[in-house]
Amino acid sequence: xxxxxxxxxxxxxxxxxxxxxxxxxxxxxxxxxxxxxxxxxxxxxxxxxxxxxxxxxxxxxxxxxxxxxxxxxxxxxxxxxxxxxxxxxxxxxxxxxxxxxxxxxxxxxxxxxxxxxxxxxxxxxxxxxxxxxxxxxxxxxxxxxxxxxxxxxxxxxxxxxxxxxxxxxxxxxxxxxxxxxxxxxxxxxxxxxxxxxxxxxxxxxxxxxxxxxxxxxxxxxxxxxxxxxxxxxxxxxxxxxxxxxxxxxxxxxxxxxxxxxxxxxxxxxxxxxxxxxxxxxxxxxxxxxxxxxxxxxxxxxxxxxxxxxxxxxxxxxxxxxxxxxxxxxxxxxxxxxxxxxxxxxxxxxxxxxxxxxxxxxxxxxxxxxxxxxxxxxxxxxxxxxxxxxxxxxxxxxxxxxxxxxxxxx
Length: 409
Hints:
It is built from 17 helices and 13 strands. The protein is of the alpha/beta class and about 400 residues long. It has a 7-stranded mixed beta sheet, sandwiched between helices. Strands 3-2-1-6-5-4 form a 6-stranded antiparallel beta sheet, covered by helices on one side.
């Protein structure tokens, strides 16, 4: 098992799939590819699941488990976020690769304005996107930025713990749901009594957690969390809609006061065919956007994001997509498919006649540096990312061999 997983990691896999009746598969450059020829038997899938479980009590009750989350690591192989599930009565496993190094804005090639967002004293910062869009990495980079530059107490609530943060200038307390605290709701309530400056929640799943998160932001904390929403408009709409109709006006008032920024992101295939690049929509809550939230005019927010690129450092998906196409990072076809309005994106792009990115911000989103005159943002220029190691193909005849012998008994 470990040999196959190591081969997948060496080839740049982001996820590994193990399922009874199927071969080992890995997601490489966004595509799910087979790693072996030999299929996994139900007994082997059960044995692998038991091997990945961290404690004896859970292993003893494995046959009563239907969904289970944990983390797992092995020297020379790596660390992983693990989900164990049942399908058709047998076990399956999905493993998310967690890099050894805590990421930075530069290594992820995120817009430089995120450094301004990370310096906020209070308010909610939401990182949104579909599953597998890199939200956990972006949140880790936000925590890492604060940890390296400020003397603060950072409390994280995760299920499971992914990136391991060392205490640098800040003290970082990492709590795992189910191990260190009962639930996100209980952990968040307790965190407010633990003298935090920054609270990071792995995911806001219900109205009670969202309500407590807004309360944390209202009482002077910087709160970082995620939602599975595709853009800023959907994020605000989703939060309000989760509450009963009679409470939604009050929620809009609280959200307008507590929300600081929304970073929505998508991972897109590079034009080279190797690796993926992030496209991000960034909204900072200005007085105008605050009024739009209060007046329930959130449909107009995207236009104000586009207009605020120079003064505030905001950007829409379309602005960033234009920059990425002009920089040769992604193809026009990929950008058009991901645009907020594909027809408008194509028209605007054609009118620009392939000129460089429309705005100074869009250029900075690719280079990692802010344009001249951008207020209150100072970020070192991003170094060009190292090429993603694709690795060699699996050796001829490599079909898993006898690697399952360890489970024979």
